[in-house]
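Notes on consecutive records. When two proteins share a document, each keeps its own sequence and its own token line. Never mix them. Below: protein one.
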Amino acid sequence: MEQSLTGTVALVTGASSGIGEAAAAALAAAGASVALVARRRDRLDGLAARIRDEGGTALVLDADITDQAAAHEVVQRTMEEAGRLDIVVNNAGLMLLGRIEGADTLRWRQMLDLNVAALMTLCHAALPHLLQAAQNEPRHIADIVNVSSVAGRVARAGSGAYNATKWAVNAFSEALRQEVASRHVRVSLIEPGAVDTELASHNTDPDVLAALQRRFGSIERLASADIADVIVFVVTRPSQVAINELLVRPTEQAD
């Protein structure tokens, strides 16, 4: 039996496009008030308007969460303006592929800052409020959903730095899950395969783009809404049920 999200507040990072945008809309449709976090204010305003037009509640928080102070501020503003925090979806991410030899290591730092450090900071900032929500109505449970990747399970040549960030997310999520499980904060890891989003467009190297085309060009990729459905499924389980990890590939993706 699904739990209702009515009366809850969900914070979603990377909400200006792709999985984050779809997840925020789906959580709002399921009854949650949503705090929308990303850098592109115009995109967030458009999403918030759509949510409100459909009877939902949305708070726009444009921020660069790679700045620790900004990450803490979005949590603080959510508490101040929405009054509580029940669900955090850490979706913001960057995928900059390329070989390790000769790499521009500043690109590695960009991914570490967003994919790993920002996610860890958001979890740390949100945790006291999630623990409090888990003790109270309406659900007596709270949720952290960290969006990782198949790349957090399988390392590949040409993807080493990105692999490293996603393996870090997986390890951090499992350690955090063990720390807070007894206090009714569920930590769930979602590992999408190929999804039709802007993620691949972060790459401009012709060799990288050609490799992506060879690997995924002939298959039907997942839609952002497919992963949003999974996120809503995870956070609406009864309080005694925790979905710790879900790998979700397109049917045609073999690896």
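Protein two starts on the next line and is unrelated to protein one.
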Amino acid sequence: MLLPFYQNELIEAGCDEAGRGCLAGPVFAAAVILPKDFKHPLLNDSKQISEKNRYDLRAEIEESALAFAVALVDHQEIDKINILNASFLAMHRAIEKLAQKPEFLIIDGNTFKPFQSMPHQCIVKGDGKYFSIAAASILAKTYRDDFMEKIDQEYPIYQWKKNKGYPTKYHRKVVIENGISPYHRKTFKITNPQLSIF
């Protein structure tokens, strides 16, 4: 079972992103404030959960959360400011959209650009340790998957419905043979699928 909070004095929001390592599409981020008594036996890092359970959990998180928000930074912004800064910006946008203002942030990962003057704590693999970060990971992942499935209808050749924009061997092969779409990140290197996956 994950832990409910990193600290108990301040209103705490968990933040996570999805899509950092993708070749196409935006990076999404979510921020979630959960009630003090929130618990869920299935809630964990979104990568550890089946697609069906992720969507079931999304509905439960959105119903139970005191506040939640999802935001994105698109591929053009990513190319301008780089993916790390884009991930921070997406989290900042999600935090800004929260209906309730948090007083403390817990962030999945080992680095973060401070949001205003709000105190924060970075937690490596935090989505497998704290409920609110896990909840944020579920929202960011499912909202991004929805977006990629939508644009897959415009460019089915890349199979985004299946790979969600990640650099699978098939995705890289199609980019090398057919070129990039308007949704691809131009600053991301497309390695030859015959070489080892990065």
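For the record: The chain has a mean pLDDT of 94.
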